[in-house]
From TrEMBL:
SUPFAM superfamilies: DR1885-like metal-binding protein
Source organism of the structure: Duganella vulcania
InterPro entries xrefs: LpqE-like (IPR007410), Lxx211020-like (IPR058248), PCuAC_sf (IPR036182)
Organism classification: Bacteria, Pseudomonadati, Pseudomonadota, Betaproteobacteria, Burkholderiales
Signal sequence region: 1-19
Domain of life: Bacteria
UniProtKB keywords: Signal
Official protein name in the record: Copper chaperone PCu(A)C
Length: 148
């Protein structure tokens, strides 16, 4: 009986211990029917130094971590291999900075639906951990409140 109770307690504690990265305020921009890409935005906060190393979404042929930055007088966007998540600090994935790009969309993303997005995190010297988030699709004209 003690072994069963210990196993149940361990099973309850392990998922909580793995939840090292908090994901908040996630949203995806809706698309017009012919669009082939959209952005995913959110806030991430890790309890330990970690990195966002990959993203997956079944609605897209390709999902990448991207960064927008000024190069001279032009704002340019490019894929990055990972995104550092310093321990205890909020990292915003927002329009005009780091964000997730969903490309080669398989269908239109409509306001009001949710899309599962899997985030892959790695902590120093540790195996990768995945978190799947059901992300709401917001209108094309949506602008998040300040501070999000």
């Amino acid at each position: 009986m003690k072994k069963i109770l210990s196993a149940l307690l361990l099973a309850a504690v392990v998922p909580a211990a793995l939840a090292q990265v908090e994901v908040g305020d996630a949203w995806i921009r809706a698309t017009v029917p012919s669009a082939k890409s959209s952005g995913v935005f959110m806030r991430l906060k890790s309890k330990q130094d970690a990195q966002l190393v990959a993203v997956r979404a079944e609605v897209a042929g390709v999902a990448e971590i991207h960064q927008m930055q000024m190069e001279g007088q032009l704002m340019k966007m490019h894929a990055v291999p990972s995104l550092d998540l310093p321990a205890g600090r909020m990292v915003d994935l927002a329009s005009g900075g780091y964000h997730v790009m969903l490309m080669d969309l398989k269908r239109q993303l409509k306001q009001g639906e949710t899309v599962p997005v899997t985030l892959v995190f790695r902590k120093k010297g540790k195996q990768a951990e995945t978190v799947t988030v059901d992300v709401p699709v917001k209108p094309l004209t949506y602008t998040p409140p300040k501070g999000q």
